[in-house]
Amino acid sequence: MWRFVVANNQAGNPTWWLYAGNNEMVAWAGETFASTYSANRAALAFKAGARTARYEVYQDAGGSWRWRAWRSSDKVAASGESFSSRYAAEQAANRVRDNAGGATSAAA
C-alpha cells in the first residue's frame, strides 16, 4: 500500500514524502513548509492532482535522471531518487502518477 508521510526533515522543517508499497521513498514535496498543516495540505493536493499533473524528466548536474511534477507553474513533487536512464525516470514518474491518488495519508 502506498502512503504519504508528513513529518519534519532532519533540519526540523515540515515536508511530505510518498512511499511505495515496498517502503521505498518514491517522491517528496521538493520543499519544506512553514507548518505541518501546510505540508499536509500540500500532500493532499498532490494526492488529488497526481493523475493530471505534468511530469518532467530531466538530467541533473551529475548526469543522473530525475523527474518532477508540475501543476500550472508550481512544482508540486520531485523524484525520491535519481535514475541511471531517462527510461527508468519516466517509468518511476508513471508509477507515481498512477498510484499517488490511492495512497493513504499519515501526518506526524
Please describe what this structure looks like:
The chain is α+β, with helices and mostly antiparallel strands and 108 residues long. 26% of the residues are buried. The chain has a 7-stranded mixed β-sheet with strand order 4-5-6-3-2-1-7, with helices on one face. The chain has helices spanning 36-49, 86-99; strands at 3-8, 14-19, 25-28, 54-59, 65-71, 74-79, 104-107. It is built from 2 helices and 7 strands; from the N terminus they run E-E-E-H-E-E-E-H-E.
The Rg value, from CA coordinates, equals: 13 Å
Shape: globular
Strand content is 35-45%
Strand order of the largest sheet: 4-5-6-3-2-1-7
Order of helices and strands: EEEHEEEHE
Mean pLDDT: 95
Largest sheet: 7 strands, mixed
Number of extended strands: 7
The low-confidence parts are none
The total count of helices amounts to 2
Structural class: alpha+beta
Helix content: 25-40%
The rounded distance between the terminal residues' Cα atoms is 18 Å
InterPro entries: YegP-like_sf
Protein name: DUF1508 domain-containing protein
Organism: Nocardioides flavus
Brief overview, please?
The protein is α+β, with helices and mostly antiparallel strands. The chain is 26% helix and 36% strand. Strand 5 and strand 6 form a beta hairpin.
